[in-house]
Amino acid sequence: MTSPPERPKSVPDRLSQMLHKAFALPIETPLFRPLLVITTVGLALVCAYAYAAGWFSPTRLTPKQIIATFNQDFGTHPGFRRNHAKGVCVVGYFDGNGSASGLSNALVFGASRTPVIGRFAIPGGNPEITDASSPVRSMALQFQQPNGEQWRTGMNNVPLFAVKTPRAFYEQLEAARPDPATGKPDPARMKAFFDAHPETAGAREWGKTHLPSSSWANGTYYSINAFQLVAANGDKQFVRWAMVPELAYTPIDPIIPKAADFLSHDLEQQLQQGPLRWHLILTLAKAGDVTNDATQSWPADRTTVDAGTLTLNQTVSQDDGPCRDVNFDPLILPHGIRPSSDPLLAGRSSAYSRSFNVRTREEAEGAVTQTNNAQLIAKKGNP
To answer: 51, 148, 156, 184: which one has the fewest Cβ atoms less than 10 Å from its Cβ?
Structure first.
């Protein structure tokens, strides 16, 4: 009986045989399967990078574009935040009273004290701007829980946001860019923007009827976006929060001229007289309340909970204060607090991250330059 003729080997088979022989590998050692896996993983990484870089969607809005727009509107100020560039660090603590512990299992809502680092600021990317240049004031806080988790929140003294999407915010920045001839936004461009974005009506109307506070110390600061609290039993509750001052609100007098840094000077003087306190007020949404649109308010009859007292007792320059290296990303949340589906939250988070990375790199480059200059002077002497 004769054996069947041997089938001719395919090219891959011949190549495999050559490689096994060249590297003295056992014939059962797989060669092409690992290579296929490595190639597939590599392609997946390249595709993921291309997607993240926007290669597949060149018109997609990116954090880089948003930050570049701040630079175009306010100029480039290396080492400073691209928005809220002018501000001051504050330190203190939060005393939770336990009233919100049934709504959330976040430790900050227990009956305990939590250290806080904060920052007061005014909007815009120019750190040299006068405090009276904008009616908007902001308070940003970082709560450091004992389990290592942090809660960071950035709030404004306006309860509503002007727009509801990052794209609209970007368009607002474009429309508000100062005209080189006047140094002010072009009224026609602003009108066109507002006409195209009727959702801005609520915030604009609020601004017309509410004078800003005379001080950072007597202002109320709102979370703007909605968040979701999660209780230990899994129950969920959408909320917005506000820091309400114990000091009585006093409106700014628009007639009296103000010094360029009157807000920071006033805050320092207030703290020299004693600590300043705010109450963390949670407003509970009802079914049907909009939770993904910061341009829409909730009815005034919603239940509120006083979750505790914020005490601030010291200001520190932002140049080297504890808030300098804090990115008040609203998506850094402890267990027990979750973001809503509001698209502004992701937009704020990514833009803050971009701003943080840019300014810290600039600080590092500046430090290297100073060191090199100092070494050069030490070696050669002052010119």
So the answer is: 148
d(CA 170, CA 67): 9
CA–CA gap between residue 334 and residue 154 (Å, rounded): 15
Q: Which residue has better confidence, 181 or 19?
A: 181
Angle at 26 between CA 25 and CA 28, to 5 degrees: 125
323 three-state secondary structure:
coil
Say how far apart CA 257 and CA 189 lie, in whole Å.
29
Residues tagged active-site:
84
pLDDT tier, 383 (very low <50, low <70, confident <90, very high otherwise): very low
Give the helix/strand (H/E) hosting 241. strand 236-245
For 238-254, letters b (16+ CB in 10 Å) and e give bbbbbbbbeeeeeebee
Cβ atoms of 253 and 282 within 8 Å: the answer is no
**How many angstroms separate the Cα of 127 from the Cα of each of 79, 91, 258, 314, 318?**
10, 21, 17, 21, 11
